[in-house]
Write a structure and sequence with these properties.
66 residues
Length: 66
């Protein structure tokens, strides 16, 4: 369940609870992203090194040989 924050101070925060853990972010998409990271990597998701694929995607989409 994703819900807006409870007070006026958190009016722009969204909260979700899953499996006893709370996830809070500025918008619902960020909350879902945090949950996806946690589902993929577990409680130590912040310690994971995720490779950056941005350059490889750009190279594939826009090859210099054109």
């Amino acid at each position: 369940v994703i819900s807006p924050g409870a007070s006026e101070d958190d009016a722009y925060d969204y909260c979700a609870t899953k499996d006893g853990r709370d996830f809070i972010a500025r918008d619902p998409v960020e909350v879902l992203g945090l949950i996806a990271l946690w589902e993929q990597f577990g409680d130590n998701w912040r310690d994971q090194v995720v490779p950056a694929h941005h350059a490889a995607l750009l190279d594939a989409a826009f090859p210099e040989d054109d």
